[in-house]
Task: structure prediction
Amino acid sequence: APTDVSVLGLGLMGSALAATLLSAGHRLTVWNRTAAKTGPLTAQGALPAASPAEAVAASPLVIVCLSTNDNVTEALAGLDLTGKTLVNLTNGTPEQARSISGWATKAGAAYVDGGIMAVPQMIGSPAAYVLYSGDEEAYEAHRPTLAAFGGTRWVGTEPGRAALHDLALLTGMYGMFLGVAQAFALIRSESVPATEFAGPLQEWITAMLGAVPDLATAIDTEQHLTDVSNLAMNREVLPNFTDTFRAQGVDPGFFLLLAPLLDRAVEEGHGADGLSRLVMMLKQ
Ligand code: NDP
Result:
């Protein structure tokens, strides 16, 4: 059955979330700092709230999606959240999620933190999903409503856990894009068209991603010895990359982060280990 829902924050993402809830038939109340952004949604039947307090009062389920968690803390400061479920889909740190959870719980709410694994255009499609952590009972109660956004993935009652997963997934993505940018910079240094190189690059990265489950097993079992590609060998060939970057006028900075990790691993006697050992080397 449709639930009353309030959405606070109508940026690119908040607007997409709100529009999806409207399409799913919920009675929707919306608030945004810049009131003009409520226009397209109220035209489709959403009710405008004049303040965060008014938006919170309107519905049992309150979804917030602002730029930062500092904005969330500021917007909700001093409000009575008794009996509300607060679902915070703002990107943030695990520590911020724990802190807002503590505050929201004291203010009377059940708190669920979320990490959106989609761009606004994907919201409501099967390709989108959201990570959730925090109050499991409230999550289960509202899951049918939250499912309008796409997949729902529960990662635990520790409120910071969704942010941890979100940041870790994006960490893998940023590393991948940095590698992709470096690869294009290198290939472009001899004017090879990027479009000509895109297919082989995508194919290679996709094939290499097949190693992720085996890396995970090595990490969990702490069995890093490999017969695939060991760190000593990788260290030997690293100058081929850095020398080429320099010769071709490409910034070698990315690989200069890798070199000391490989040096230290080999110095500490882990030369026969595979790339999974890097996880240990990254621990501070
Ligand atoms: P936008 O920049 O489009 O929107 C930001 C929203 O935050 C607006 O509603 C803005 O209000 C509001 N806001 C900013 N500062 C304040 C403040 N001090 N007080 C009250 N409201 C404030 O960002 P997105 O909608 O794209 O992103 C929102 C969140 O979703 C971010 O945490 C982002 O990381 C996350 N996200 C975004 C994705 C994306 O692809 N866009 C993907 C996954 C997560 P106003 O209109 O008045 O400026």
About this structure: Residues 32 and 107 are 22 Å apart (CA to CA). The chain has two domains: 4-156, 165-282. The chain has a mean pLDDT of 97.
